[in-house]
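User: Second chain of the day. Same drill as before.
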Amino acid sequence: MSGSMDGMHTFIMSSINSVLVGQSSTYGNMISVIATSSFTAYIIFRGYQTLAGKLIRPAEDVMWDIGRMLLIMMFVLNLGGWLDTVISALDGFKDGVSGSDNIWVLLDSVWEKAQKLAKNLYEMDDSTVPLEGMTAEFLVWAGAIIVLAVSTLVNLLAEITILLMGTTAPLFIFCLAYGFLRSMFSSWLSVILNALLTILFSALFLRIGIKYMTIILDTALAVSQDKNMVTLAIQSLLACFASALIIWFSAKIASALTGAAVQATMQGAAMAGIGSMGSGTKPMSDAVSGSLGKMGDRAAKNLNAGSTSPSAARKSSIQTMQRSNQQRK
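Assistant: Same format as last time:
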């Protein structure tokens, strides 16, 4: 099917894959050199923090960070094929969100429906100069070209984005190892989710447009010759134009959704980090609570002192003044 939309998509993606083949492992090897140096610097830094008494639980904290870094490096270096499994899962999810048929098969269906509808509307005009038939055919093809062009542009860019993000995955997964680089990983994940949701929404709205074109085609085949074919063509044009417009805005809708989702996820992770920091400073909280308890005891003593009788208070003050006079002598 070299002349179909699916054939064009296969040719373009295979050409890009041939250029990007092996680049993911190259990036992983580059990151391994950087990771070795940064890991050594991190251990030295943690050692100085331990000697300076900045870490409350140095053994637990250092072992946790080392285990987390080793897990991240397993994905970066593709040990055991873990990174390939993740990329394959992304590809499978991309094919699954479009339904039983992928987006390019749906675009081929739009092409076939437009051909049949344009031909039937043209043949309905049996006049010597079929002006209405030619107008109807032009309108049908105009709508089909609009929806095909917009859908191809949006979905092809989304799939190329997923391919590029999968190729550069080792670079961005490594950013999880250090807190000041995690925003880069969240941006990378947001781009992937944006592309996946774009494909999902495009397939959904394209199916609606195809269904409406099928209804118009059935109407054109069932009606008599005196039916206004231009009206059917205009309905097809409007359906295709509406589908193309919604598909174009689906990318913006997906961007808004993924931005909000990633922001909420990062806020949740930040709150979890704050909670763990709070649990790590337990001795400090105990010291604070102890000091507050002492202050409470003093306040209780003052209250108890204030609750004594006036005569006892005067007697106590007289004794205090006598002791002070004796000390002066």
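Confidence is low (pLDDT under 50) at residues 272-296, 299-308.

User: Great, on to the next one.
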